[in-house]
Amino acid sequence: MRKYGTIQLIGVYGTAADNSQLDLIFNRNVQVKSGQAPVIHMMPKLYDMIKIKSLIQQKLSLILCL
Q1: pTM above 0.90, yes or no
Q2: Alpha carbon of residue 17 to chain centroid
Q3: How many Å separate Cα 43 from the centre of its chain?
Q4: Which Gene3D superfamilies does this entry report, sorted A to Z (predicted)?
Q5: Contact at 8 Å (CB) between 29 and 53?
Q6: Where exactly are the structural domains of the chain?
C-alpha cells in the first residue's frame, strides 16, 4: 500500500479496530471507506461457485509493508 492511498471495505461489517490491524494504517495516511453493499441476492450463486470450486474460499488479510 502506498502512502495516501485508499482502502475500501464493501459488503460486510468489519470487526472493532482493536481486533484487527486497521489501526496501523493511520501511520501511512491511508484513507479507509466502508459501507454495506446490496449483495444478498447474489449469495446463492456465490455458494454454488464455492461448491464447484470455481471460486476458492480464502481468508483475506490486510498486509501492510511498513
Answers
A1: no
A2: 13
A3: 17
A4: Medium-chain alcohol dehydrogenases, catalytic domain, NAD(P)-binding Rossmann-like Domain
A5: no
A6: 1-66
